[in-house]
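To assess whether ligand presence alters the predicted conformation, the chain was also submitted together with zinc ion. Input:
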Amino acid sequence: MTSQSQKVKNRADERLLAANTPLLIARSEGMCEVGSEMCAGIVFDPESDVAAQIVQECFSRHHRRLKRQGGTSELDNLVLACGSGTSGCHGWIHRNPQRSRTLGWLVSAHGPAPEHMPWLRRGVWTLREQAA
Ligand SMILES: [Zn+2]
């Protein structure tokens, strides 16, 4: 039961996700931004012609505040994570929600917005990391 306004909102967020994906890839410097103990450690050239394809096949765009909890595809809410929702760092995040919250990889729907919540980016605490 999705309302018409929710559908419009979802489409707008899909466009935002598409628009922010190249910025996310550039920000990643060609590596998973999480770096959990399950990291696949894949490295690629973010400026390569096949970067988008590599990202599509080996990475996913994790929403720190989950979409179903009102999270959007603003760059501050996105993390380029290796794997899928069940594998690699992205899978690790969803299997370890409590630790992921302490590391800023998951942001509660009830607390401060993602842009105000630091997160551990490959071992370095980060807040509002801008695209390269
Ligand atoms: Zn990883």
